[in-house]
Batch of 2 targets.
Target 1
Amino acid sequence: MNENFNGSPQELMDEIVASVPKNLQEAFVRVVEAGTRVMYSEQTHDMMLEQMNKEGDAAQNIGEGIAGLMMLLYQKSNQTMPTEIIMPAGVYLLGSGADFLEKVLKEKIPPAVLADALQAMIDMLMEKFGIQKDRFYSAVEKAAAGGYKE
Amino acid sequence: MLALELPNIEYTTITQARRLSVELPYADPFRGCMYGQKNGPALALVGAASGIATGISVGGFLGGMMIVGGIASGLGALTGNETLSKIGMGLSLAGGIGSAFTTPTGEFINPFSEGNRFGETALGGGIEKMKNGVKSFFGDVTGGPVSQMGIDGNAILDTALPDVSGPAMTQSMIDAVPKTGIDLSQSGVLDKAADAAAGTAQGGGGGLLSFMGSNKDLWGMVSGAADGVLQYQDNQIRKPYYDAAAASAEANANATNLQTEQLRQRMENVKAQPEVQLGVNPNASVHGRTPGTAEGRVAVVLDGQVKYLSQAEYETMRQQQQQPSGLLNTGSPA
């Protein structure tokens, strides 16, 4: 992790690219390319913009939009996409979308918005994959706290 | 090979879009398209991909969470988002997955779905080396001084460091997370995981999250050792290149030294060459000399000075130089 990480969309993309293990890099690149085509193609670009600009919490909209994109890619791949790639590719595309918005709106996307969007994406993906969110966070919280013994 | 079918969505007019509206419930007498009610098309990508993805590998998804755990932790710390921070702390482990769940060749071994390969990773190998090291340090822990003190060394090691062979390492997590399909029942994936984390799993726990939470310092130490193992193995792989680079640098240095030496020798040779002086006979008289009769003088360098000797003096000097003299004079030359 870069010590000078400032939470910008570009840094988010750079960090996730550096984090992907070697055996998953090829699949990662393919999924990101496919996701980028969906996000910025003529047929579907308006759809993405509508999702990101709709009323409500912007971070929630962005996160859920990217989660939906990942689900779409997974289904369209006939479930051959390595599931380990879903989260890393989602984070990259999240950064890419936020970077695009920064350029269009000419405003910086605050790191807090990115963080909330990432959390919204994680929550939506868990819901779509049928993972019980409260159970997941309970297990993670106990592991993070480290306050239990056998 | 990853085959992707990109969506092909076309909306030409609003009328066309309305024709694609989601149908209302069957047999509703008061609502529906017959009454002019139309819903907009499901434009949002979330709707386009609705529904639970059956057949998903939960373990695979959690492995992906591990990959982004460091970023989640970083963003959480930067923004004060505690949820992301906990995800990062709980899943990315001490030192991240860079070495913990990576083989020497850089392959990521997902502990949630490939736990039986954990021994191949740097961390798994590090744990195994540490256990063997502890055993060799204390001798055979089944006997010797350790057992004489009434201490079951093997039990201590097995409790402190999980068995990296087979599925024992992450028994609660791996056994609970099938590679394909998801169990949505109460005894499902995360119930078992949560129980394992709380140390209340059947059989006494010993699951991954339980071990991580209870032994953070040890985990950090082993992770650091794993980093060292990985770096050592990386250096071993690169050693031939390092040696070749060093040999090449040494050869270049030798070539440079040789050139320098040759240049120095040339400079010395130039300095050692005798000075050639062209002597002019100051006593030569041009005007009063009868051709063939004037006696010329010979210019000789003696002790760094030019002297002009007559022919007879020159011959005498030469004879003196050729005759041996001094203590080493042993008679006529052979």
Note: Chain B has 13 helices and two strands.
Target 2
Amino acid sequence: MEDKNKEALARQYILGKLSEEEATRLEEDYFASDDTFEEMEVAEDEIIDAYVRDELSSEDSKLVKENLLTSSRISRRVGFAKILAAKASRKPVSQAEESSPAASHEQQKPVPNVWSWKDVFWPASVWQRAAFSALAIVIAVGTVSLIIDWLRVRKESNRLSASTAALESKNRDLIAENNQRALETQRLAEELKTQKAENAILNEQIERTLNKPSSAVPVISILLSISGSRTLDNEKVVKLPAEPTILQLRIPLEEVKYDRYLVTITSDERPVSAPRELKASGKMLTLRLSSTRFVRGDYIVTVSGVTPSGQAIEIEDYTLRII
Amino acid sequence: MSIPAIIIRGPMTHSPDSSPNDGGTDDPFASTPADSTKPTSVLTERAFHKFLATLNPDREEAGRKYEALRTRLVRFFEWRHCSFPDSRADETLDRVARKIDKGQVISNLLPYLLTVAHNVKKEVWKEDKRRRALENEVVNNTRSRNLEPNLESDEPDHRLICFDRCLESLPADNRKLILSYYQEDGGAKIDWRKQLAEQMGIELNALRIRAHRIRKTLEQCIGLCLAQFAGTKG
């Protein structure tokens, strides 16, 4: 059969428009020949496709409805053909169905659009569902974990902020306290300095008063030596008198090398009085101090020779203990 | 291919019985009166195997031929507008198998088969005509409502899902071809397909066949996919 003849014949046969004789001949052909049978199937495709696209004449369309759609297989093929037509023409499936003759003549369920949230989020395949469920669980667990971590970090951050604020406050308090103490120390130092100055003035006044010839103030003469001190009454240790007294320190010199000598008395490296410049009388230096200058403790008496240029050269240290 | 050992047909209330007690006639043109109430007899395993042996001595090849014959018979009954085409095809094959089992030698199987099929077809037409006469408008309404009965049996979502899935499973070239082939409609369709055939360097008829085969594969895939949904629906 010519191709075009075959096509036309097949279509006529399927629609039921051939004579019985022609139909029987065609049947013998397609039962015997695989190629002819395939041609018949192609013709069926094209009839169904034309029916779906409303390309058949009204007579042929009626023949399809009455004769072919009673077959469940062909009905199913019509449903498939609608979807294929829509997909191929990139129309929504519902639009393609509205234009089909079946939809225009019958009440049918509307076919939804191709895209479906259900299809996206809940696929049909079991393994895809399992994979999607596992992914959802991982995402959920991850999200919960992130939230917990965020809460923990926030709490920690708040705690650190509070701690920092407390430390800053304490620091400010300590600085203020320190400043106050420094001021206090400065005040006390100034007070002490003033006091010392006053004491020195008072001691000098006392010494002047005590040194007046008419004065009946007792004098304790202390002869110093390198290894200790001795008083005329008691060696090494000098008892501090209760009443103001003149302590007369007598410092012996091994040799008189200098015209002038400088004598300083210190206790714990602090000067008891201003350095005194003395002249030797024979081999002895004499220094008179008010007892009020002294408190109980150990004292060092340093004797230095003063050169003509004014330079002081240490000669000897003498120790003195006041009890 | 697995071949059923015994083919059992239930009572065919809409199909006439090919009674085994027909006197051993070998004349396939002798059709028995329609009797929808009489159940058909079961095809025995022996009869079935005898029939397969008639098709081909090799069991595998015989099975393939059997399936090919059955498919053609189903189409025959569909294209001849008979109800229940699958059952009619089975009935036709059973009748032939029973004849062979009784000892009839059939020199040319295909024409004999076709003749039996025609007999069955005539019986079905008579039966359908009688039924239509009895049921009248009710039958017509049923038939008209059944215009696309099986479209309602598969959920639209499932069809779309299966279509997309199966389309995706096609090799890229085939997917592109099938969508291109059905891209146009109306008058532009023929020209478009000619153009497509030229681009591919093949005849238009070869393109038709190729598109048909891809479409067939797609439909088979969709059928399996929908069966899975039906199975999971339970």
Note: The two ends of chain B are 27 Å apart (CA to CA).
